[in-house]
Amino acid sequence: MQFSPSRGLPRLDPLSRPFSLACGGPAKSTIKMKTFSVNKVFPFWHKVSEGTLTTRFAAAVALLVVVTAALISIASIVFQQQSVENIISEREATAVAQIAHEIDNNLMLRRDALIRSASDIASVVPHDRQHYQEWLNRHHMMKSFFSNLVVIDRRGHQIANLSDPTSGEVDLSDREYFRQTLRTNAAIISAPLQSAISGRPVIVLTAPIRNNNGELVAILAGTIDLARDSFIRDLSDVKIGKSGYYFIVSRQGCT
Questions:
Q1: Whole-prediction pTM
Q2: Same domain assignment for residues 236 and 214
Q3: pLDDT averaged per 10 residues in sequence order, the chain, 255 residues
Q4: How many domains does the chain divide into?
Q5: Which domain holds residue 194?
Q6: How far apart are CA 102 and CA 253, in angstroms?
């Protein structure tokens, strides 16, 4: 929150004021005003002003000492506050960097597991729906890494699904992770998106399935459900102080 210095109140024209004050009385009456002396109100000033040069000098020195001490105290408080803020900022930056590193490691671990699985599934001949589905059924332990595993053919159609073998074909050809994998013939990690299969927020990891000639014949895709229990979901349970929290922002600025 930022505070801006208040401006002085605008001076109102006498004719535009919402109200005015007036004194009424007989025309012949006179107004008597009492005067007061500064020396009576501030007797110390009277003593200093009428004192010797030494007294005046001592008073000036005392005033200078008081003002200097006040300025030093204010500067010390500001410096200490700034130091505390810098320490907290550095600690938070270190904590964020460590958590980001852990997330990277978790994603790389899952990507490498997916690449090895895609290399293993490439031995399945022929490359058709039935054999892909049988391979997924035999490797259900992969669900410890992913919420679901699917196989996508070169047209962009899902042809095998570990969680729902009877789901049938789902057109994923418009998905950026499919297009990027097909274009680069390499494993990728997608930005957070809404799954076309489950409708849930997910991250998709892909790995190309290649034939003996190194040509891409299908894509093995693993999804990580961001709304369910996962290493990323656990991040929302971590608190900073009383009300602080962590959140992840994609390159598109989405949280």
A1: 0.64
A2: yes
A3: 41 40 42 48 52 74 86 88 83 84 90 94 80 91 91 94 86 94 95 83 94 91 84 73 75 63
A4: 2
A5: 86-245
A6: 21
